[in-house]
Amino acid sequence: KVLSHLKNKYPTHSIFSTTCEQFTFWRNNNINDNFWNPAEANQIMRILSEIIFSN
């Protein structure tokens, strides 16, 4: 649901050009760095807030 809303509102977000292999690596390893720049991180947080507080 989050990705769908993100794609509708921010279709050029770099999450949509990230490979499955990269997501798998992140899921299976501890990551100390944030991949998203501040603007992209804020876009994700805005969508999460919209979904959480819409119910």
Describe it.
By secondary structure, this protein is an all-alpha fold. The protein has one domain. Helix content is 60%, strand content 0%. The chain has 3 helices and no strands. It has helices at 2-9, 20-28, 38-53. It starts with a helix and ends with a helix. The model has no long low-confidence stretch (mean pLDDT 91).
Keywords, please?
mainly alpha; 55 residues
Tell me the span between the first and last alpha carbons.
13 Å
Largest sheet: none
Q: Low-confidence stretches at least 5 residues in length (pLDDT < 50)?
A: none
The domain count comes to 1
Query: How many alpha or pi helices?
Result: 3
Average pLDDT, to the nearest integer? Answer: 91
Order of helices and strands: HHH
* Overall geometry: globular
Helical content (DSSP H or I, runs of 4+) = 55-70%
Provide the structure class: mainly alpha
Radius of gyration, Cα only, in angstroms? 12 Å
Total strands: 0
Range of strand content? under 5%
How would you summarize what this structure contains?
The protein has 55 residues and is mostly helical.
Chain-wise SSE layout:
Blueprint lengths: L1 H8 L10 H9 L9 H16 L2
